[in-house]
Amino acid sequence: MIDYDLKKIRAVIFDVDGVLSASTINLHPSGEPMRTVNIKDGYAIQLAVKQGLHIAIMTGATVDSIRIRYERLGVKDVFTTCSVKIKTYDKFLSDNGLTDEEVIFVGDDIPDYEVMSRSGCPCCPSDACPDIKAISRYISQAVGGHGVGRDIIEQVLRAQGKWLADKKAFGW
Fold this sequence. Notes:
Blueprint lengths: L10 E4 L11 E2 L5 E2 L4 H12 L3 E5 L5 H9 L4 E3 L5 H12 L6 E4 L6 H6 L2 E4 L5 H6 L2 E2 L8 H12 L13
Parallel strand pairs: 1-4, 1-6, 4-5, 6-7, 7-8
Antiparallel strand pairs: 2-3
Helix pairs in contact: 1-6
């Protein structure tokens, strides 16, 4: 269980590679990375959006497939090509009237470190690097790409009384 007052969480921000997709990536013959996605993560993300939880994606990746995937789930803030995530994070908070304490950031590696050090509730998958595990308030039992998003979102929505709370839960 996440050791944090999840009732005050208003936003969950996810890194992609190693968090919402597996740490290894197949390469298309053209050289384009082909990421995996987890269907249960997708269900939880779209439900969280419908229940009013602000979901954002923040990744250094540059491919359109990431934007397409998460926009189809209702995510409005999909930030790609984030070479220094803290700048994007600060603007995201400012644009949405959020404080660090209202945000969960889910990351797995050093590019996520600055943001995770600031967010109120940093979380990571079980296969995150040791430096990220050391600063995380919660380490999911799931490895990256295998249900980390579902695990964290479900805990937040349950704590807020929004998991299976109405008919929104029973469809896409």
